[in-house]
Design goal:
There is one protein chain. This protein is of the alpha/beta class. It folds into three domains: 106 residues, Nucleotidyltransferase, domain 5 (2-Layer Sandwich); 184 residues, Exopolyphosphatase. Domain 2 (Nucleotidyltransferase, domain 5, 2-Layer Sandwich); 192 residues, Orthogonal Bundle (Hypothetical protein af1432). The chain has 20 helices and 14 strands. The strands form three sheets. Strands 8-7-6-9-11-10 form a six-stranded mixed sheet, with helices on both faces. It starts with a strand and ends with a strand.
Length: 511
Amino acid sequence: MTLKTGIVDLGSNTTRLVIYEYEPGRRFRLADEVREVVRLREGMGRTNVLRAAAMERSLNALRMFRAFCDTQGVEEVTAVATSAVRDAANKASFLARAEANTGWRLRVLSGEEEGFYGALGAINATGLREGFVVDLGGGSAQVVEVREGFPTRSVSLPLGALRLTELFLAPNKVRPEQVEALKAFTTEVLAPLDWFRHQPGDCLVALGGTIRNLAQIDQAQKRLPVRILPNYRFRAQDLHAISEHLWRLTLKKRTAIPGLRFDRADIIHAGALAYSVILQHSGFDAVVISRQGLREGLFYERFLVEQNRPIIDDLREFSVYNLARNFAFDETHTRHVAFLAQRMFDDLKPAHGLDESYQDLLWAASILHDIGVIVDYQYHHQHSSYIILNHALSGYAPRELALIALLTRYHRSKGVPKPGNLAPWLEKEDVRALMIMAGILRLAEYFERGRRQVIRDVRCHLDLDQGWLQIEVLAAGDAAMELWDAGRNIDVLASALGLEVELVGGVWLQE
C-alpha cells in the first residue's frame, strides 16, 4: 500500500515542504518539493527577537504549504522549526500564530535533535560508518559524531551562514578585518571540540545548501561537462581557495558566479569562511557532499518504523532496488540478467583481472538497465542512463554512478562503449573495465532476450594460451532466438578481452 507524507522544515534562511510517496520499508520517492527563502533569522542580530517582516514571510510560506498539502491529499505532515525559532525570545507567540494559520503544531527541534536527524539523512545517503557529519544552515551548524554507522554525540554551534553574515560582514564590500573577526569567532567556537578531529578511517560528510552550492561552484570551475553532486569528494584545498575568492568579490560579482544560486549570493561567503575554518580545525583533507539531511532523516524515522533504528542496512542494494521499483522494472527478468552477468564475470576473471568493486557496479547496471522502458522502448538504454545520473543512487560515488550509467547506456547493440562526456569522472582502468563489463552485460541481456529464463545458466571455458573463449549456454528449451541475438552482439566482449569468442548451445540439467 502506497502512503503519502509531508515534511515541513522551517529553517533560519529557507523553508521547505517535501512530499514522499512510500511503501514502508520497501520503496519511496520524492513526489514534490516546494522551497521558499524566508530569511526568518534576518534582523535578529544579537537580540534573538524574530522581526515582523521575517515572521510574515514565514507564515505566508507555511499557509501556502498547508493549502498545497490539502490539494494533494497529504494529511500526514511533520512540521519542524530549527535554529531561528529555537533561539527566539518571542518564539511562543510565533508558534501560536503558526498553529492558528495552518493547524500544524510546529515541533521546535533542539540542537542535538537537529544534528541527529541531519546525520540520519546523511548516513542513509552516503553509507557513512565512521566519522562526522556537519550541517551548516542559516542560523547554526550541527557537528555529529558517527560511530558504527549511527549518530552518537552531537553539538549545535552558532555558525549559520545568515547569522555570521549579519554579525561580521558588510552587505556589499567585505573588509579583511571583518573576515579575520569571523574566522576568529569560528575558531573560538570550535576550540572546545577536541573530539572533532580526523582519525584514520574517518570521513567527513557535510549537508545543506551552503556546502552544496560551494561544491557546485567547484565543479563549475573544473568545467565538468556533467555535474554529479551526491557523494562528491570536495577537496579541502579547493574549498579554501573558493572561500578566499568569494569574500573579495562584491555582491554583484558573486551573483554571477557559475554554480551559485542567486538567492545565496549575499551569505555564501560567510558560510564558505566557516567551512574553511571547520576543515582546518578537524584536519580533514576533503568533505563528502550529502544531498540528504534533516528532512530525509525525519522521513526515514517513519519509513523504517519497523526497525530498531532508522538506518538502511545495505544501502547500495536498497538504493538500486528502490530506483528500479519506482520505475516499474521487470524484477524476474533483471534478476536473471544480473545472475548471468555475474556468472560470466566470475568465470572470466583470469582473462579480465577486474576486482570485485567492478562486479558490484555490473550488478547494479544489470538491475537498472531497462528502467528507461517506462519512458520509451526505442531509446530505453539512453533513458535508463539519464535516469541513473539524475536520480542519485545513495552509497555510490560519482565515478561509480558514471560507470553504472554508461553500462546501461551500452547494454544494447548501439555502438562501441565509450565514456563520452562522463570521461572526467573515470579513472584510467575504468575505460578498459567499461568495455569488458558492457560486453558481458550485452550478452547477458540477449541470453534473456525472450524474458522467459530459457537460458538457465552459462559456463565460460578459457584457453588464454591459444586465445579463445567458449561460452556454453545451458538452456531448458528452444533458445534459438537468444543464441541468434547474442551471436550478433559478441564483438564488444571479444574485442575487450582480445580473444576469439564462440557460443555453444548446451542443455541445462536440473539437479
